[in-house]
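Lab manual, section 2.4: Encoding a predicted structure.

Procedure: take the sequence of the chain (268 residues), apply the prediction step described in section 2.3, and record the output as C-alpha cells. A sample record is shown.
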Amino acid sequence: MATLVIPRPVSAKAGQIAQSAARAISPLLILVAWQAASSAGLIPERTLASPLHVLDTLWTLIADGELADNLLVSLGRAMEGLAIGVSLGTVFALISGLSRRGETAIDAPLQILRAIPFLALVPLFILWFGIGETPKIALVALGTVYPIYLNLYSGIRGIDKKLLEAGRTFGLNQWQLLRHVVLPGALPSFLVGLRYAMGISWLSLVVAEQINASSGIGYLIMSARDFMRTDIIVVGLMVYGLLGLLTDVIIRTLEHRALAWRPSILKG
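Recorded output:
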C-alpha cells in the first residue's frame, strides 16, 4: 500500500537561500564560458585575461600590499568628496525645501548647473585647482550634490499637510515640527538620494583618478593600460564594482533599520 507523503512547507529562510543560489548560476556560467573561451584561445590575453589569470593577479596584488595601498587612497578621495557633496546637497535642500525665498534663490542656479554634465567640467577644474587632489575631490563632491538635493527637496515638499496640522495641534513650534515631522518624513527620500550619490561618487572617481594620479585604483588601471595588462585592469574594475555593491548594501541596511516603522507591501 502506497504511503501518502505530505511535503513540508519550505521556510522563508530556505526560500531566500534557494533564490540567492539561483541568482548566482548565471554569473557562474558566464565565468565558466569565459574561462573555456580563453583556454581554447578564442579570447587572446591581450584582449581580455582569463578569470584564473585575473584571480592570480588579484592574489599577487593583495599579497604585496599594492591593492590595499591604492584602495585606501581611492576610498579617502571618494569619502571626502561624498561628505562635501552630501553636506552641500542637504543644506541646499533644506533652504530650498523649507522656504519659497530659498527655493527662488537656490533652485534655479542648481537646475542650470545640473543640466551641465559634471564630467565636462574636468578641464575647468584642472585650470582652477591644478592636478593635485583638489580637482579629484571636487569632481566627486559636485557629482553627489544633485542626487541629495533633488531627493531631499522632494521629500520635504512631499510631507503630508495633515501631519503638519496635527503637529501644530499638539503645540509644536517650527523647530519641533522640523525635527519631529519634516525630517523623519523626508528621511526615506534622503536615503534614496544617498544611494544614488554613492553610486555617482564611484563613477566620478573613475574619471577623477585619470587626472595625473600617482596612486589609487584609477592610477592602477591607467598604468596597466600602458603595459597592456588586461588582468590588472579587470582587477581594478572588479574592485570598483565591489566597492559600489558594498556601499549600496551598507546604505540599504541603514535604510532598513532607520525606516523600520514604514509599512511595506512585502511580507516577511
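Check your result against the sample. The radius of gyration is 24 Å.
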